[in-house]
Amino acid sequence: MKNEKGDFTNANMLRKKAEKQLKESQGRESGTPLTNDVNKLLHELQVHQIELEMQNEELHQAYETAEKALKKYTMLYDLSPLGYFSLDPDGAICEVNFTGADLLRERRFSLINSNFKLFIAEESKTAFNDFFSKIYTSNAKESCEIMLGYDDKNLCRVYVEGVVTEDEQKCLLSVVNISKFTKD
Fold it and tell me: Which distant-in-sequence residues (6+ apart) come within 8 Å of 18 by Cβ?
């Protein structure tokens, strides 16, 4: 089967390519023209089979491209040295990467739907709440430094940058541990 690039979603183009390929293969097999109904039906089935094979090949290539993109996404998001969080307007965690979960010292999937504000140390709650409301009112990237912690236990000092997506109104946060760079 020839591997020609083309838009296999275009039915007319696909049909022409399949007919051309069938004609070439029949030319090698026999030189007799198709004349009766049975031969016409066989011809139609063969063309349709070739069309399906071409579409299947294109789907296979699209699948491989999607797999490569997924691996790249996993490397960039899940394994990033930065903590990434996606919060809803109330502060509930919608998504978090592995580094973000490590910063909060919790398992990643147990954090989903937990409120991020519960992991802010008491001394930083006002600063974070001001930062969080400013993100939603300014619609610009904002930043702050806060202390993560809960149950009167401080975890670490972090630098947080956030922005709100226009379409879903979710807050995207990147969080970096700066404890070893600051004095408390």
Answer: 47, 48, 50, 51, 54
Closest among 148, 175, 172, 147 to 160, alpha carbons compared: 175
Q: Are residues 86 and 138 in the same domain?
A: yes
**39-58 pLDDT tens trace:** 888 888 999 999 999 999 99
Distances (CA, A) of 43 to 2, 11, 21, 158, 163: 19, 17, 12, 69, 59
Phi, psi of 82 (to 5 degrees): -95, 145
Is the separation of the CB atoms in 114 and 93 below 8 Å? yes
Same domain, 141 and 175: yes
pLDDT at res. 118: 94
Rounded to whole angstroms, the Cα distance separating 7 from 94 reads 37
- 127 is in which domain, residue-wise? 81-181
Residue 95 falls inside a structural domain: yes
| Mean per-residue pLDDT, 71-86 | 92
Q: Which two tokens stand for residue 118?
A: 């519960």
Query: Is residue 97 domain-resident?
Result: yes
